[in-house]
Specification:
The structure is a single chain. Helix 1 packs antiparallel against helix 3. The chain starts with a helix and ends in an 8-residue tail after the last helix. Helix content is 77%, strand content 0%.
Length: 111
């Protein structure tokens, strides 16, 4: 095999691994973030409230790790396929992700 084709195969494998990490981090990392408000809202006594804050504190670690992995894998996939940085949907999704990351839970206070 030529060296060029070996590099292309390695890039394809690396890209597929990055996509897998990206999808798993979206599911496992960002998913718990949507239930934070509902966990805290269901508490009726002070003990339940303390317990709900303990649960959300532990889940927050997964959300932070998932958000970081989403951003890193997105940028790495863009560096492997530079044409992504020229496409509108990629830039728009990156901007929306950063806006959502900056807003945090403030958008859920309206619910």
């Amino acid at each position: 095999m030529k060296l060029c084709s070996l590099l292309e195969v390695n890039l394809v494998i690396s890209y597929k691994i990055l996509v897998l990490i990206h999808i798993l981090s979206a599911i496992l990392g960002m998913g718990p973030g949507f239930v934070f408000v509902f966990i805290k809202r269901t508490a009726q006594t002070m003990t339940e409230l303390r317990h709900s804050y303990r649960i959300t504190f532990l889940l927050h670690r997964f959300v932070m790790l998932g958000g970081t992995l989403l951003l890193v894998t997105r940028l790495l996939m863009g560096s492997l396929h530079v044409v992504l940085f020229q496409q509108g949907w990629y830039i728009t999704s990156l901007i929306l992700f950063l806006v959502a990351l900056g807003m945090g839970q403030w958008c859920f206070l309206l619910l």
